[in-house]
Amino acid sequence: MPSEQTEARDRSLTERLRSSLRGEVIDRSSPGYDEARAVWNGLIDRRPVAIARCAGTADVVEAVAAAREHRPVVSIRGGGHQVAGSAVCDDGLVIDLSRMKGVHVDPSARTARAQAGVTWGELDRETQLHGLVTPGGEISATGIAGLTLGGGFGFVMRTFGLSCDSVRSLEVVTADGTVRTASRDEEPDMFWAARGGGRGLGVVTSFEFGLHVLGPEVAGVLALHPYERAEEVLRAWRDATHAAPETVTPEILLWSVPADPAIPQELHRSKCVIVGAVYGGPPGDGATAALAPQRELGPPLLDLSGTLPYVTLQSANTWRFPDGERYFMKSHFMEELTDEAIRALVDWDSRRPTPESLIVIRTLGGAVARVGPDDSAFAHRSARYNLSIDAGWRDPALDEASIAWARSAWDAMKPFSSGGTYVNFAGLGEDASGLRGSVFGSHGERLERTRAAYDPEGLFASAAHRP
């Protein structure tokens, strides 16, 4: 039971927030408390003292002032899902930006300004009115904030770079309550750190993105191959990626056939190899030729390749990652995908605990690698691949087995890695201490100095050091 002193402190924090915020303040006595503290990953069950659901930047300034006065643990929630669940904290304050949904597109300047509660689906809906995109995540329900601050993998990253590479500027409320603009010309150290450095600089309230011409229709490959040919397909896919132009972003998944009405029912939920690729330019003969090597990997179970709206592409897998199910993800960067690594991958995939679990290999290079290695805090520009081991399940009774599978598979693949880990796929809180060097590499010291310069008293320190 909390002490009287703790209860008084918590009441004082909540009263301070309610007296100054235009948005809603939710505490443990509020009717909507359990709904407000729930996040996408059902594995996360945390009970904050208060949730400050900010209506705008002025509310964020007040929430930061309240945190500075009362010194609770602070977490920051954007608009989408984040695997480690660090958007919420136990016994602290959640600065919740999920209702901050403003988007403004300037098609002449090819820029978009979006608040931190926006998801990629919401941003794409606005930018695609003008046939423009900024490279975003592969699930439309993902929030722009967390993904971008951690780097940002997506379907067209080899053509247009990571999500953070298209950031022109950010609005950030720092620990002293100052509203700052970070760009190449203003607060350049903050701008450097925010592009791939994750959390801990302050509360990012909006992003200005540069936009690229793409859509509304895009060309892509989606081919499902028999699982018994997994090693063969992986080797052929690896070889094809070595020659892929920058206009093509390939990936491969060891997963299960989706229960889609367009697919024969007898195949549903059976193991398969899924080859995907997107062309970062207009559909047509050029796209067909560039994508052909990704389609020529042997006879598929199904070939669903073709053209489709960009917004449909971005939302196609969202239903396979529903809110409230349980997730655990860890990753490695890799320079090469050797035959030995492929055999190990297939071996570990054969032990997958649930049909929802999967192993994904994404191809980097192209525009990702063209950015200078020290131009942003993202530390893995030279890697050819990212390997993500993603456990997914519904039954809480499978928690231990599912997490153990993912961790064991990650350990088994470590000898084949370059020693790097992607911060957005870095496990849970207990994985944090062993990952800081592998996440930020040689940028770690500069990142810590930058955080300390803007937050000398460590108001956001707990947020900074979570996956």
TrEMBL record:
Q: Which cofactor does it need?
A: FAD
Record flagged with keyword Flavoprotein:
yes
* Domain of life the protein comes from: Bacteria
InterPro entries found in the cross-reference section: FAD-bd_PCMH, FAD-bd_PCMH-like_sf, FAD-bd_PCMH_sub1, FAD-bd_PCMH_sub2, FAD-linked_Oxidoreductase, Oxid_FAD_bind_N, Oxy_OxRdtase_FAD_BS
MF-aspect GO terms: FAD binding; oxidoreductase activity
Identify the keywords attached in UniProt to this record, alphabetized.
Answer: FAD, Flavoprotein, Oxidoreductase
Q: Could you tell me which residue ranges the FAD-binding PCMH-type domain spans?
A: 44-214
Family annotation (PROSITE patterns): FAD_PCMH, OX2_COVAL_FAD
> By what name is this protein known?
FAD-binding oxidoreductase
The species this protein belongs to is: Streptomyces actinomycinicus
